[in-house]
Write a structure and sequence with these properties.
Number of helices of chain A: 22
Region (Disordered) (chain B): 88-112
Largest sheet of chain A: 4 strands, mixed
Largest interface: A-B, 107 and 67 residues
Strand content of chain A: 5-15%
Biased composition (Gly residues) (chain B): 94-104
CATH architecture of the largest domain in chain B: 3-Layer(aba) Sandwich
Radius of gyration of chain A: 26 Å
Number of domains of chain B: 3
Distance between the termini of chain B: 70 Å
Structural class of chain B: alpha/beta
Strand order of the largest sheet of chain B: 10-9-8-11-12-13
CATH superfamily of the largest domain in chain B: von Willebrand factor, type A domain
Shape of chain A: globular
Protein name (chain B): UPF0229 protein DET50_11435
CATH topology of the largest domain in chain B: Rossmann fold
Helix content of chain B: 40-55%
Strand content of chain B: 15-25%
Number of strands of chain A: 9
Distance between the termini of chain A: 63 Å
InterPro entries (chain B): UPF0229 (IPR006698)
Organism (chain B): Marinobacter pelagius
Helix content of chain A: 40-55%
Oligomer: heterodimer
CATH class of the largest domain in chain B: Alpha Beta
Chain lengths: 519, 431
């Protein structure tokens, strides 16, 4: 971990123009990339950015499309959905709708970042600053990544996963494996223990333990499903009433992997693989604003530092600033290009304003951020990066100034009213509620339905009951029946899903659907 | 710093997604087959050089997950407020049923949001087409590959193997380079030598400051330096080398003409014609592989025959009876006037539902045996009907006995049965 940090405030001898720019053209070469990286690394060091070693891979546009379509995994098992993704990417790219240029960076050690060969030199420098020093230091520093992922083991684990899936395809057929994967993907977001720290993924460990699991697992499961009744249980009505699991389980995939009665061992292993990948992506899903904001803040700051040192010229800065402003552009809500809040904009604005609050605090800042206003900005930014996720970060650091700058406002849509209502805007009474509402918007358990394993009818028809707890009466979407079918495929017996609002069942889903004459 | 490792991955394989793409096509093969079938319907039978755009309804390829639906109460924060203040009420659009809280759903490219569209390649297109026809792999390969190549000269290149070195051009290049590099210096040498000559022959100046000896020394040194420079220009350099370049070109035999004969009388439905069209496409693909130039002649007939374009051939309907011999006669006439068997390989494919005037069938048999089969490479007859055979079939059976080498016939009730006719064709070609 990095501690605090030499200030770059003391100029060595670097008035602008004192040193010659590294290059003036826009063509890149490997030597130039190396040189830019050296200099950016020096600047990053001045600001105390602590990173994994970098591995910069120069790739072609086609390879970039490959990388895109495997959702950021450098090695992946085969699945049709990645093929679909690829066709989509290729289509967008060939029509020129989509720039591929920006960045793909892998949370691994060394940290792998891709540079596309078509990029100009300023773009390459921007991506290096953004990915290799921005994202990289975020991966290494943020507590969620430190808790949930093991950067040094992920590549090995992905290789293990791919080989295992390929082996299963050989042994059990592509169709059988595809079925299991489809069902697991449907539940991938429900394969995480949100409140327990997981054991880190380690490939060597996986491979060693996987054999053991195969042997012991089936025995354990048979135990749970023992069909001969245990007399002492049956005597006790309270014990018979007891649910299994005793406490609701939020990790559906884990529960199914460990308890589904009919799955074969290889199927359990595949569930486990998807679960582990879900876990690997879990921190990214919760830190989009922070992660992009942090990386954007640093490409902006690092390249300005390069300019101050005279290492890049005005032409370079013009091209860089043009790309930068495209990245942080936020269309207003009534624009045809509006598609929600741009995480780059929001994150960049908060980090930038945080620095301002430290360096040039106003009275308002002193009132809102008494601990931070006037403090050491680098220390404060690093603290914010390390210890928060989007929800708490916004709750903690979104300032009235940023709300004013972005002109944020909140709208309530209640299906029982015939009007939308503006509930808060960027004014004195609005700041606090607005900040709360925006923070909640990034809370995963608000964004995604809360669905848990409620009960298994262990002694009866072995059916599995899931329970959905709606928030503000928001129902489940139209995919729900389809997903329940996937749960049924994994579980092997009847599956019920009930939405329970305030103790009343408001909606039910069943697979297979109930027979009419049963009623 | 040395912490960063830069790798050039551009030469690594780029088709990392090929398997995933293949998996996708495999999963949606029914959709794609349908699209291919429709495309075949729309395309000309000679139009097999390109892939096809396939659209699949988005709901069929969605990956379902648990997510929130419409309804309930929810709040969203948006940017770009202009005139709203807290407490403002905005009427909901009527009839829209309360759109969700704002995620924009407009598709920027204007393409329908409920269609997933993508392109399949020509190879994939043919594969799906062959799939439908139940073509075995070996036959597929034969149809898709152009196996015969010849090398043709294609100018010169500065890279190559020694065996392809063109000595004359290389030396010519070297000569030009030597002239280019040395010419100016040689001229300078000649000028200096003249000055030297003049200096040597001129009388000695009296002023020692202008002593000829020094000047001669200077000139001589300069000439020596220039000569050394010229000597250093290599006689031949790597950049002078020129190699003959050859490129591979498919080497089809010569020309072929393909006659498509079809009954368009009232009893031939569009379904019959579609099956016939597959059959004609296959024959075309087969010929395309073997011949450089292929003409296709379409002859349709009911009671009388007519040469038509492809559109009219497949998509216009007639009513009335059937006289097959009219088409065979017309084919013969066209061969005589335009396609001399000495220059053309002649193939014919006839599709019919088997209907013919009974008097006419023996006429057909005789015409084929006497005037057509001696001229053609191959004549294939497909009878598209699930019903019992009529006169024409029995007449043709006799022909097949007499001309097993150049005549094939098959009854077809669905596209999967087209292939056996072709197998005979391939076997014959292989022999």
């Amino acid at each position: 971990m990095s501690s605090i940090v030499d200030r770059p405030n003391v100029p060595e001898s670097d008035q602008p123009g004192a040193r010659k720019p590294i290059s003036t053209g826009s063509e890149w070469t490997f030597d130039l990339i190396q040189e830019y990286d050296d200099e950016i690394a020096k600047c990053a060091g001045e600001f105390g950015l602590d990173t994994y070693p970098n591995q910069i891979e120069v790739i072609s546009a086609e390879q970039m499309m490959d990388a895109y379509s495997s959702v950021g995994m450098p090695v992946g098992y085969h699945h049709w959905s990645f093929g679909k993704q690829f066709l989509n990417t290729a289509k967008g790219y060939q029509r020129g709708q989509m720039g591929l240029a920006y960045e793909i960076v892998i949370n691994s050690n060394p940290c792998i970042a891709y540079l596309m060969e078509e990029n100009t030199l300023p773009m390459q420098a921007l991506v290096i600053a953004h990915a290799c020093y921005g994202h990289n230091s975020f991966f290494k520093g943020n507590y969620l990544f430190r808790t949930w992922t093991d950067a040094s083991a992920i590549i090995d684990y992905l290789v293990f996963a791919r080989n295992y899936v390929a082996e299963c395809e050989e042994r059990h057929g592509v169709d059988a494996v595809e079925e299991i994967l489809d069902s697991c993907h449907a539940l991938m977001n429900y394969g995480v223990d949100r409140y327990k720290r997981p054991p880190p993924i380690s490939a060597a460990e996986e491979a060693r333990r996987q054999k053991e699991r195969e042997e012991y697992q089936q025995r354990r499961i048979n135990d749970l499903w023992r069909t001969i009744p245990r007399p002492e249980d049956d005597d006790d009505p309270i014990k018979r009433q007891r649910r299994f699991p005793e406490e609701p389980q939020e990790n559906l995939l884990y529960f199914i992997e460990k308890n589904a009665p009919l799955l074969e061992t290889w199927q359990r292993e595949i569930i486990r693989i998807v679960r582990k990948l879900g876990q690997y992506f879990y921190p990214q899903r919760q830190t989009q604003v922070m992660n992009e904001g942090w990386a954007t803040f640093w490409h902006y700051t690092l390249l300005h530092r390069m300019y101050d040192k005279g290492l890049v010229n005005d032409g370079f800065m013009l091209e860089f600033l043009q790309s930068h402003s495209a990245v942080v552009y936020q269309p207003p809500f009534n624009s045809p290009w509006y598609s929600g809040i741009n995480p780059y904009t929001l994150g960049f604005s908060i980090f930038t304003d945080l620095r301002r609050i430290c360096e040039n605090p106003t009275d308002e800042d002193r009132e809102w951020f008494p601990d931070i206003a006037g403090s050491d900005w680098l220390e404060t930014l690093h603290f914010a990066m390390r210890n928060f996720k989007d929800e708490s970060f916004i709750q903690q650091f979104l300032s009235p100034k940023v709300m004013r700058d972005l002109k944020l406002f909140a709208i309530e849509n209640d299906d029982q009213e015939d009007h939308y209502m503006v509930t808060a805007i960027h004014d004195d009474p609005g700041y606090r509620p607005l900040r709360e509402k925006l923070a909640r918007q990034y809370n995963l358990s608000y964004r995604e339905p809360n669905i848990q394993v409620w009960n298994v009818d262990v002694r009866g028809d072995r059916s599995l009951t899931l329970r959905h707890i709606p928030v503000d009466r928001v129902p489940l979407g139209e995919d729900t029946e389809e997903v329940v079918r996937h749960v049924h495929r994994l579980w092997g017996f009847d599956v019920h899903l009930e939405s329970v609002d305030d103790g009343t069942v408001v909606e039910e889903y069943h697979c297979p659907p109930p027979h009419l004459d049963d009623e | 710093m040395g912490m960063t490792h830069i790798v050039d991955r551009r030469l690594n394989g780029k088709n990392k997604s090929a398997v995933n793409r293949e998996r996708f096509l495999r999963r949606y093969r029914h959709h794609i087959k349908k699209a291919v079938a429709e495309a075949v319907h729309k395309r000309s039978i000679t139009d097999v050089e390109r892939g096809e755009k396939v659209s699949i309804p988005t709901r069929d390829i969605d990956e379902p997950i648990f997510h929130h639906g419409q309804g309930g109460r929810r709040e969203m924060v948006h940017p770009g407020n202009q005139e709203f203040v807290a407490g403002d009420m905005i009427p909901k659009p009527q009839g829209g049923g309360g759109q969700g809280g704002g995620q924009g759903q407009a598709s920027p490219d204007g393409e329908g949001m409920d269609e997933f569209a993508f392109q399949i390649t020509q190879e994939e297109f043919l594969d799906f087409l062959f799939d439908d026809l139940e073509l075995p792999n070996l036959a597929r390969k034969k149809l898709k590959d152009t196996e015969a190549f010849k090398y043709v000269r294609a100018g010169f290149t500065n890279q190559g193997i020694p065996a392809k070195l063109d000595v004359v051009r290389s030396l010519r290049g070297a000569h030009a380079r030597r002239l280019g590099l040395g010419g100016a210096r040689k001229k300078k040498i000649r000028d200096l030598e003249k000055q030297l000559e003049a200096l040597k022959s001129a009388p000695e100046d009296l002023d020692p400051a202008f002593s000829h000896e020094d000047q001669i020394k200077v000139l001589e040194d300069e000439i020596a330096r220039l000569k050394a420079n010229v000597r250093r220009i290599p006689f031949i350099d790597e950049i002078d080398l020129r190699y003959r370049q050859h490129v591979k070109q498919p080497k089809p035999a010569t020309s072929a003409v393909m006659f498509c004969l079809m009954d368009v009388s009232g009893s031939m439905t569009q379904m019959h014609k579609d099956i016939a069209k597959r059959f004609f496409i296959l024959l075309y693909l087969f010929l395309k592989k073997n011949y450089k130039k292929i003409d296709v002649v379409f002859i349709r007939h009911h009671t009388s025959a007519k040469e038509v374009d492809e559109e009219e051939f497949f998509y216009s309907r007639e009513t009335g009876g059937t006289i097959v011999s009219s088409a065979i006669k017309l084919m013969h006439k066209i061969i005589e006037s335009r396609y001399s068997p000495a220059e053309w390989n002649i193939y014919a494919a006839q599709a019919s539902d088997g209907d013919n005037w009974n008097d006419d069938s023996p006429v057909c048999g005789k015409l084929l045996a006497d005037s057509i089969l001696p001229l053609v490479q191959y004549y294939a007859y497909v009878e598209i009907t699930p019903q019992d055979h009529q006169m024409l079939w029995y007449e043709y059976e006799k022909i097949m006995e007499r001309f097993p080498q150049s005549f094939a016939m098959q009854q077809i009730a669905d596209p999967g049965e087209i292939y056996p006719v072709f197998r005979q064709l391939f076997e014959r070609k292989a022999a």
